[in-house]
Amino acid sequence: MKRFLCICLYLFVCLATAQAQKAEGIFGKAAAAYENANGISASLAVNIRIGKQGNPESFEATIDMKGDRFRLITPDMRTWYDGKTLWTYMARTNEVNITSPSGDELESVNPMILLRRYEKGFKLSYSGESTSDLGKMADDVKLVSKGDSDIEEADLQIDRASSLPVRISVVMKNDIKSVIRISRMKTGVNQPESVFVFNAADYPDVLEVDLRY
């Protein structure tokens, strides 16, 4: 019996190791695909729930990304990040907050950043095959925080043809859960640097709140 249990444990460890290696291979290809995309523009369908009893909120969004930089536009908010400074504009108050965000803060604003930061604090595992909303074959990879990230866990559905995510589900440590479905993605956009910088001239009488100091 003891020998049988040892064999079962050995097989379980081998299987877990193989699954982790498969997940790392898939995610590594996704990270490389993002780096080689030379700028991405995508349309998103976002669903957010705060707490188990909270009412879900759904909205459409667009995002432009290039390297560390991104611009995210939602119905109520616009966000720019140029690799150093984050501008968050609230249309309701005509106010923009200016910060120098940490890596964890960036992940909570734009989970796609995980493609560039996954090696720095997440354990990967392979969840299996699936079919995307567009009917394409995909692989599912789970990321579990090792303790440092504001993200507790994330599940990414990665399209086999493009090696890029088509769905991202994120559970935050503050009990916020979000599901992001990518309905359209264009690569090779090669946006100019100005796309990722807030331009006050486009927002008359905006109140700038500098929180960097």
Layout of helices and strands:
Layout: H1 2-35, E1 40-50, E2 57-66, E3 69-73, E4 77-81, E5 86-90, E6 95-99, H2 103-109, H3 114-117, E7 122-131, E8 137-145, E9 151-159, E10 165-172, E11 176-187, E12 207-210
Parallel strand pairs: 6-12
Antiparallel strand pairs: 1-2, 1-11, 2-3, 3-4, 4-5, 5-6, 7-8, 8-9, 9-10, 10-11
What key attributes describe this structure?
disordered N terminus; globular; 213 residues; twelve-stranded mixed beta sheet; 44% strand; alpha+beta; 12 strands
Describe it:
- The chain has helices at 2-35, 103-109, 114-117; strands spanning 40-50, 57-66, 69-73, 77-81, 86-90, 95-99, 122-131, 137-145, 151-159, 165-172, 176-187, 207-210.
- 21% of the residues lie in helices and 44% in strands.
- The radius of gyration is 19 Å and the shape is globular.
- Mean pLDDT is 85; it is low at 1-18.
- Strands 7-8-9-10-11-1-2-3-4-5-6-12 form a twelve-stranded mixed β-sheet, with helices on one face.
- It has three helices and twelve strands; from the N terminus they run H-E-E-E-E-E-E-H-H-E-E-E-E-E-E.
- The longest helix has 34 residues, at 2-35.
- It is α+β, with helices and mostly antiparallel strands.
